[in-house]
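Researcher: Quick test of sequence recovery. Tokens follow.
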């Protein structure tokens, strides 16, 4: 269960468009983009007003742009959910790449993700068509 004092719990109360699982999925997709797909470039992020954890010097963050993240989310969804990817995302209220932008910018607003001065919410709009993006290459062949 979520701790009600956590920022994400507050976010879920004030913006109920997407469930907790959608936010977790976007975090996991960002990690997938950076670690598995090698996406992102070292880029300083804007200050968020949040204090750094610890006081240790942080490694430079690998920044993934909005359009890159949308593609990584598509690939990650296909890997995780196969031909059900679009259905799962739709069940979470995600019906376009713009919804990924809403989730990301909600997380930025509460200090759980960062952005550069070049990042805009609109970077996520119309990156690809959901109907075609999640329909490719699935064939069910009966055993012989």
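Model:
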């Amino acid at each position: 269960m979520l701790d009600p004092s956590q920022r994400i719990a507050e976010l879920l109360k004030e913006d109920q468009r997407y469930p907790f699982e959608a936010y977790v999925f976007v975090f996991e997709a960002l990690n997938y983009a950076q670690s598995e797909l090698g996406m992102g470039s070292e880029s300083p992020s804007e200050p968020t007003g949040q204090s750094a954890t610890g006081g240790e010097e942080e490694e430079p963050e690998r920044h993934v742009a909005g359009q890159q993240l949308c593609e990584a989310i598509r690939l990650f969804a296909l890997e995780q959910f196969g031909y059900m990817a679009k259905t799962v995302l739709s069940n979470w209220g995600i019906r376009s790449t713009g919804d990924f932008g809403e989730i990301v910018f909600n997380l930025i607003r509460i200090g759980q993700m960062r952005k550069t001065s070049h990042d805009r919410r609109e970077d996520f709009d119309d990156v690809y068509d959901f109907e075609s993006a999640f329909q490719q290459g699935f064939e069910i062949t009966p055993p012989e």
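Residues 98 and 125 are 4 Å apart (CA to CA).
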